[in-house]
Amino acid sequence: MTITNWDFNTAFQALTDHLPMRWQDRLHQLMMQSRLPKVCELPTGLGKTSVIPIWLISLAMRAGNESIDLPRRLIYIVNRRTVVDQATDVVLQIRNRLLDPDNPSWQTHTQTLTRLANELRKLSAGLDDLPLAISTLRGELADNEEWKADPARPSIIIGTIDMVGSKLLFSGYGDGRYHRPHHAGLIGQDSLIVHDEAHLTPTFSNLLRNVIETQRKANESRPVQLLELSATTRGKSDDVLTLEPEDHEDEIVRQRLDAKKSLRLHKIGTDDLAKRIAELAGKHDASPSKVLIYVRSPKTAQQVLEALGEKLGRDSDLRTALLTGTIRGHERDRLVRENPVYQALLNHDQPVERTVYLVSTSAGEVGIDLDADHLVCDLTVLDSMIQRLGRVNRRGGENRLAMVDVVAEEDEMSLKDKISDFHQAMRATQTILGRLPFKDDSVHDAGPRSMGDLLKSLDEDEKSRAFSPKPDLQPVTDILFDNWSLTSIRESMPGRPEVEPYLHGLTNDPPETYVAWRREVALLGEAGAETLRDWFRACRIEAHERLRNGTDHVKKTLQTLLETHLKKNKDCDFPVVLLNERGDAEQHCLSEIVGKEFSRLEYRTVVLPVEAGGLTQSGILDGGITEPASYLDVAETDRLKQRENRRERWFLTETEGGDQWEQLVTGETASSPPHDLHELERVMLQAVPEGTEEERGAKYLVLMVSPRRSTLENPEIALATQTVEQHTGYIEDYIKRITRAIKLDPDLEEALISAARWHDRGKARPVWQRFACNPSPVEPLAKSTKYLHGRALGGYRHEFGSLMQAAADDAIRNHRKRDLILHLIAAHHGWARPHFETSTLDNSYTTQENQDAAAEVMRRFGQLQQRFGRWGLAWLESLLRCADIAASKHLTAAQMQSQSEEV
């Protein structure tokens, strides 16, 4: 039977295969009334991720009613990388159905899905036919840029606090001058931020509330909205959506709340923890089941895994898996996608022939839809215990009874004089768990209803004492927001600290360091800091390439690694690249950074050459492994299957007989680079020898990327050449589509259109046309498929030249939005926030005229930021950038035919 009704129930079922629960229907009604709650406080296992389809359906319905005041972008924040996969699966299922509504697998919903997709398309600017953009941290979708292509299109961005929070604060990790205001504008306007498990990261919640209050004071037109999700809040809060008595009539709610869980507390000495946990877990081996083991420390996790391996014998590797936050992203992603033990715990209906064991730290505690039969864990604080209990017998059922064994270290609990806040919270948690009702002499009832009743009986002080200690908050001020927004100042400056403490707070946790491996590190030994910075900003270290661990542990392990090498070769040392959060690069040697006096590893990325080794095949840092294995460099691994978003590193050798190309990873050789890749960055490795007759020529390391990635990374690069006149026509068309789709104020729309008409006039200068390799400067190019090195411009910035021309135009001079038009032109490539460097000046004008214009740029930026707000101004800049990117990708029918024939 085909569903024809246009209502929430049918739409929700069409996207999820389930009818909504009552709380989900209530949230939809609130969204339809523009009355978002501040918090959704719901027990684990009740589908908080469904906030995503609820928002999407509400947005589509409001679009159909031409009442669009819900944000167009939903940004789903998680505090664990592994949780990204969970939310991503939900979103991919949704989009697959919207893109293919006639698929036989969901054909009963064809009409509803078609209507949903059509209503969502109506919201977009029509730059393409995609109804919904998705971008996540996960492998193939790792910031695929879809959310930036059309600012009017409904978009879902899934990321961690670090990824999204840094971008919101104009400080995106790995972002350069161009992308920082672009990302801040798109995240900080017209967005609903959903902060999952918000009680675990109170500092970030506090930051978001500060941003929202700052936007309110500035009267920003489309400020961020915030919805916090939590299994339990730290304190009382108004405007909370939670379960009502009527919700218990839902079968799923009733089944989850009635799930049977028996809990036993075991007290032991500190030296016996791993052994005792493995022993308790091993008792489940007699009856095939899925056993989840949680411990606080990665070291303890490894010890438990080893102890289990001894118990289980030769096939233990097939029945055990390890998940920690210290595993490199590539291996952790592979574990989540492929490991049979992990998949067994994810798949509720999948039986096991023999007992399997997943050993995990907090990396697997939060947000992952694991459903274990039994749980063994060490004691931790109350909020973490609640999360752990939510991963065992998660779905309930008549014949399921989970056994939960909690091991408390007696000696640790008795340290009265030196006890930390965290251990005080654990002691309070142990007391609270002991108050759960008894099933018999030693077994407590830890089912959701019993836990819920217990939590309700606690006063706020008692609950607060058992929760993980709150980190000290770093107060954010208007001055900090102002300084972070000065993105054209690349160097460190007083009063502009790194953003990490403002995302996570000041904690007693040890600082962390990231480690990655690249083949090119050994080749870049003579490169200067600027060259290294440009290379690693173009070929950036991505999340799947890195592992993280405590700074002291990283330093100690790298020291062990060097010592292991020195035993084989007493003169051994390795070049190392050190990157900070802003992408600035330093060249060091390994012996230097492991030295006692070196103190700059905190929150930085150490990029090792593959020759150094140091990584196990399971992705764990190990100072005893010295082999330069092929699995160390994974910079291109997750891109190989992505034709539209891939990158490759090549050697180019120029000789009298012609160019020779060699792929860095595979060793593949060719006389020309792949026809479907564009050059994005180049570093000279070997200059042409002077005064010799040697045949060897210059040698380069070249980063080649797909055309789509090229235009996103460097907006000057187009899919085909475009004259200034052509490009101006394209961008004017696209900016009109965007501003009308988002229903922008007519005055602002007119300002953006004017800026689009003028923004590339400065490219007509001879110096820029030479840079763009234009053989016919009479017809100036705005976009080219090939450029000389940036040094050919001698520092000239075409947008400064465009600014000078526009400022002299009578129509612009007398325009009521003159300042905004000129700023949008000047800031188009990330400058003018607040300044241009002196080398950018336009020699078509006098020095004094240039200096006066540069001073006016700074004054104008300050005044406009006060008028529109920090994120409001960045958003307007982003709209023009999005139109420019779309125009750069524009191909005429003739150009498409020509490219097809070349291929």
What is the fold's blueprint, element by element?
Layout (H helix, E strand, L loop, with lengths): L7 H9 L5 H11 L6 E3 L9 H14 L8 E6 L2 H19 L10 H14 L9 E4 L9 H4 L5 E6 H8 L10 H9 L3 E5 L6 H16 L7 E6 L9 E3 L8 H7 L2 E9 L4 H10 L7 E5 L3 H15 L3 H4 E4 L5 H10 L1 H7 L9 E5 L13 E5 L3 H8 L11 E9 H4 L7 H13 L10 E2 L2 H10 L2 H7 L11 H7 L15 H5 L7 E7 L10 H10 L8 E4 H18 L6 E5 L5 E5 H4 L11 E5 L37 E9 L2 E6 L5 E2 L7 E9 L12 E7 L1 H7 L8 E2 H18 L4 H13 L7 H6 L9 E3 L14 H11 L1 H4 L4 H9 L20 H22 L1 H19 L4 H10 L1
Parallel strand pairs: 1-6, 1-7, 2-4, 2-5, 3-4, 5-6, 8-13, 9-11, 9-12, 10-11, 12-13, 15-19
Antiparallel strand pairs: 8-14, 15-16, 17-18, 17-19, 20-21, 20-24, 21-22, 23-24, 25-26
Helix pairs in contact: 1-3, 1-5, 2-3, 3-5, 8-34, 11-12, 18-20, 27-28, 27-34, 28-32, 30-32, 32-33, 33-34
Q: Can you tell me the residue ranges where pLDDT is under 50 for at least 5 consecutive residues?
A: 1-5, 896-903
Number of strands: 26
Strand content: 15-25%
- In total, how many domains does the architecture comprise? 5
Second CATH tier, the architecture of the largest domain: 3-Layer(aba) Sandwich
Number of helices: 35
Strand order of the largest sheet: 3-4-2-5-6-1-7
The percent of residues in helical segments reads: 40-55%
What fold name stands as the CATH topology of the largest domain? Rossmann fold
User: What is the radius of gyration?
Assistant: 29 Å
Largest sheet: 7 strands, parallel
Q: Any idea what the shape is?
A: globular
Distance between the termini: 47 Å
User: Mean pLDDT, as a whole number?
Assistant: 89
